[in-house]
Amino acid sequence: MNQPAFETATIDQMNLHVLPTDKFKTTTIVVQIEQQLKEETVTPTALLPFILKRGSAKYPTTKELRQFLDSLFGAVFYTDVIKKGEKQIIQLQLEIANEKYLSDTSPLLLKGIEFLGEIMTNPLIQDNGFSKNYVRSEADVLQNKISGLIDDKIRYANQRVTEEMCKEEPYRLLSYGKAEELAAVDPIQLYGYYQQLLAENPIDIYVVGDVVPQEVKDGIAKFFRVKRNQIRDLPFAPTQKKVVEENLIVEKLKVGQGKLNIGCRTHTTLVDDDYEALLVYNGILGGFPHSKLFVNVREKASLAYYAVSRLESHKGILMMMSGIEIDKFEQAVEIMKKQLQMMKEGTISDQEMAQTKATLVNQLLETKDNARTIIDFSYNNQLTGNKKTVEGMIEKIKSTTIADVVKIAQKIEVDTIYFLRDEEGK
């Protein structure tokens, strides 16, 4: 069954996407504010969603804000900042009950839209800037998140290999900004920067639920009052580079288990015609429990506690990740590279193809069962200027051949091998 399409409208140069569906008993509203991932703005952009979440002119304290959400039958509100390729995205999300399914039928949708509009367009301002207390406390929280990365060795190794691979590229930057800059963020300058973002940057508002599109449009027009200027064009153009030579980085910390990450350039992103073949490639290589890395590195050779691969589809990077005994480094690298070679040679069984395709198709079908994943899929198209559909992707996956996967394999280059090991060994 085909996915119903979003109805799209433009209100004050903001893109509104409404999907009326009776599939869910709640209504999900997501605001996405897009910014380029850049050295000079990564830290202020990272702080903004968390300051907005603390309070507004109407709900100046977190307690008042919570009380209001409770009055909306326990509406769920959260904010975040994420990285999609070389874009940094501020997200505000509200999930509210649909009054059709409640005994109290007072209209919640407009209250929810009014609340999100208040949070976004009417933040708490003191002395011409954001609240000093909120800026300080949220900067501390982000600083702790960044410094706490080292306690999660899997995430730490992944960030370090990304930094080494993308030294000259914006993608090396963490979506949470730079720890050394957070303490110096000025509340007045930050508010000025936020006003500029609201005036000039692409804003997409998504609403999914059992709603009437015209009511949503009217609500957005009434409560999302933003002064918009000329909107900046932020094209989808991830930095790509050919690998000149393989890079080896060994880092020593107090660890009991080694972390071996191999970063590869795929030269394919989700806008390319062969993207679905790349999904199949990754699934066979290390995306699933039946994949080559899992079976050969973990199961057969007993070299790794985990061995997986994952894609960053907006950037065109494939990351192989494993946890190994410190002294098994050379052996693990050799076996992991052998899997890449087998993919190039087309040493792929019919069973590997069939299992991978079936799992990918299931994953795509599951995106339709959740309002948030429906929105993510649509927003990926919006960011990239793509027109992909779940059905179209499923068809392409089903028709992918071993020859298509081999073609992808020829494009893949190992860029950086990163090994996190103990301090004692040689």
UniProtKB/TrEMBL annotation:
Highest taxon, organism lineage: Bacteria
Pfam (any one): Peptidase_M16_C
SUPFAM superfamilies: LuxS/MPP-like metallohydrolase
Domain Peptidase M16 C-terminal: 189-360
Protein name: Zn-dependent peptidase
UniProt source species: Ammoniphilus resinae
